[in-house]
Design brief:
The complex is a heterotrimer of chains A (253), B (407) and C (296). With 253 residues, chain A is of the alpha/beta class. Chain A has a domain of 166 residues: Rossmann fold (3-Layer(aba) Sandwich), CATH 3.40.50.300. Chain A has 10 helices and 10 strands. Chain A has a 6-stranded mixed β-sheet with strand order 6-7-8-3-9-10, sandwiched between helices. In chain A, β4 and β5 form a beta hairpin. In chain A, α3 runs parallel beside α6. Chain B is mainly alpha-helical and 407 residues long. Chain B has one domain: ABC transporter involved in vitamin B12 uptake, BtuC. In chain B, the strands form 3 sheets. In chain B, strands 1-6 form a two-stranded parallel ribbon. In chain B, strands 2-3 form a two-stranded antiparallel sheet. Chain B starts with 5 loop residues before the first strand and ends in a 14-residue tail after the last helix. With 296 residues, chain C is mainly α. Chain C has a domain of 198 residues. In chain C, β1 and β2 form a beta hairpin. Chain C is globular. The chains are: A alpha/beta (253), B mainly alpha (407), C mainly alpha (296). Chains B and C meet through α5, α12 and α14 of B and α4, α9 and α11 of C.
Amino acid sequence: MSNSTNKSAPKGNASNGSVPVLDVEDLRGGYGAIQVLHGLDFQVDEGEIVVILGANGAGKTTTLRAISGMIERTGSITLRGDNIGTTKAPDIVRKGVAHVPQGRGTLPELSVEDNLLVGAYIRSDNEVDSDIEQWYDVYPVLRERKNQRAGSLSGGEQQMLAVARALMSRPSLLLLDEPSLGLAPIIVSELFERFAEINRENGTTMLVVEQNAQLALGIADRGYVLESGTIFAQGPADELINDDAIRKAYLGV
Amino acid sequence: MTTPRFIFDEGSSRYRMYRIAGFTLLALLIVVVAFAYNDTGSITLFDNDYKLSITRVTKSISFMVAILGLQVVAGYTGQLSLGQGFFFGMGAYVAAWLVADHSWPWFLTLAVVVPACFLVGLLFGLPALRIKGLYLALVTLGLAAIFPSLILLDILEPYTGGAAGKSVDSDLVPPGWLPLDGMVDTLHKLPLVGRYFGDGEGLSHKEEQRVWTFFMMVLLALACFKMVNNLINSRPGRAMRAVRDNETSAAVNGMSLSYHKAMSFGVASALGGVGGMIYVAELGIASPGDFTQLLSILFIVGLVVGGVGTLSGAVIGGLDIAFIPDWASSTQSLPGVPERWLQGPTGGLILGIGLIVLTFVLPGGIIAGVRKIRAKFVRIIPQRPEPYVEAIQAAATTNKDEKATTV
Amino acid sequence: MELLINRIFDGLSNGATYALLAMALVMIFKATTLINFAQGEFAMFGGFIVMVLVLEQGLPVWVGVIVGMLLSAVLAAGIERTLIRPFDPSDHLPLVIITLGLFLGINAIAGIVWRFDPRAFPEMFPSGNAFTWGNASLSWYTIGTLVTIAVVAGLLTLLLNKTKTGLAFRAVSSNLESSELAGIKVGPTLQFGWAIAAAVGTLGVAVFVASPVRQLEPQVMVTGLIFAVSAAALGGLDSLGGAIAGGLAIGLVQSIVVPYLGIPSELSLFAAVVVLMLVLLFKPAGLFGTAAVERV
């Protein structure tokens, strides 16, 4: 999973030279008159976990929403070379992007299993059921509660359900928006271990937006630090963790 | 966008003159309406007889006041009431009963109608803290539906006159010293337009009463509009608008949501009652069939057609629901339209289609359209609020409220 | 005692109609939190379509009913596509205005096309009584309405729980954003909801006026809507099962409680409204609905 360690290179370098899963150039966007993103350039390579860090209001969530077409945006966004810069939210999953929104986006009245089925909505193959079984193997708690109302699950369980739901669509890219939000610290560290596990075993490419920089950088390959809608710093995760300026600003050290 | 021809600074003397000109025009219009075609006139179009009578205008005034009430609740707190007809009917019956059975003078009945309707409105508006908007719509729908049944209850019959309705003989009589006769005759002598003003032989007793009623009700309506205008621009009014715009932030800012919502519904209901009183004063009879669910829906139509959240919209709204259904049923033949389509419920069809079309084309109602046009000619620059620092430095004990922007 | 039994049966069969109309309201409310104030008029119009198909075109009754339901579904789908979809689903005011406009317009069109005199409606169930005990009797009509409800409830449950479209509908009702991100097309899904609601409503009116003591006329659902709203609120506005329970309950209230308390039958509307207000005051979520939780 190690990539080039050149700190001053603007982007990560895929060692096998393949097209990056996500390539974003000069991304701008916001909410009506309020522009939040002022020209972002970043990319995510095959199999990577890339995190976007930053304080509240820096534009992290907005970045993800821009990628998945939930807001108006300009700039170039390509997914494995395929332009998705004009794709809107209802079509984004068909292009291969699965977005787990902030707050987990659980469908509370539906059962756990129905939530997973919703995740697989765009699929018409016959492996949906076996995929569901696989997820039950990975998270037995979901199997236990498969007919329960998803809204009755704990926060951590809902987060796992959300990730499983998103991955049911077999996406090229998984977007995770602040998965640690509102969860107890113990649950959160377990959560992040699971993310790392999924990434290791399935090779799922992930773009994670997080406030909890320490945990996020712990599982990530590379990171970008956002400030007021622009990229303030970037580089391999282990370098960001050890960078004094970052530590002071974001890790509270 | 081209610069408008007239630009006024709010507060300047030019602006004051503009306003005075506007009011003068309004007063003139009122006089003209009062005396022209006094119940005798009609326009004929395509063989159809469209009556213009002052009774209908007074009726439309009663609707205007009712719609004004809806503006308060729907326009300023974002809640929808489907039961304004209930309070309208309530006001009508209470006023009729007081005047017919207890010989109260008409305007005194307001002392009972207003608090009574306000309290009943408050009663139903108080639980509004439970569910937003939807609750009020449903409850008021129910209220509007049962009003006729309520009136027909046996135990209330001595007061309400049952199915036959409550008729009131007392009319508003103009004071002896007012030379209404003379005014009409003078207008009749005007060149060109004089012939529209009566027939040069003064006014009959009945006609005089009608004109007088009209003037009085116009004054009452103006008082209501002024009151609502003050309310909007006052602190409670701004609070109400905050509730409408964002309930959550209003709540977080310490405003009591349910208090303001309930209060606004109380005011709205009181205005509905006033409208009802005007209605029955003009018509002379209150019958249950006049105050059905349909009336409540018509009020909403008027609200929307005029323009939600505006005062002048209530005027337009009142006019169109008073006249359109009547004119639609007066239309017996229109070239190219099969006769079948012109009978009976055509008025409803026009209003229904009109509502839908307006929602697409002019969601702000007719007033929004008028304002767009007016904006091409006139722009009013609002007075800037005094700098905060200066106000503090003035060390006054009272806070200067900032001038509200035009509504 | 036998009078009570008769009253119960009457209440249940009336309740069946309210239940069907309430289910139509709930379908739309579930998905959009909007009360379709024109629902009664859609249903009435559908009822007239059925009448035309059966009495003028000579179709067998039940074929006419099914075709009428389909036609009203298509009409409603068209209305959703042209008049509802252009608006932001979270902004209720324009949508409520549109439904009020539809209420007025459809009522007027029905009045123009079919006039306001009551018309006889074909019978959908065999006439007469299935069972009699002394003075109590259970008519085929009552049995028929209850069976209809059960069948509709069953079919709707299957539709919602076992089909992909049903899943999409439930998803959209639960979380619009997540549904979109999962690739569900919200517009067509809502359209589906409107179509089903219209069909169920039409069936409700058909069943209602198929009774030997009632006739079809354009005003039939103006007060009927109130009963349906009460029933839906009682059951919980987002629960289909609740709509059935609520409808039957309102029907029973109308036929048992009202005469029992000595209230004249014209005031049964009154009783329904009182129920509505009590529900909204004390238990806004109804008997089976989910309480609305608003996140700040």
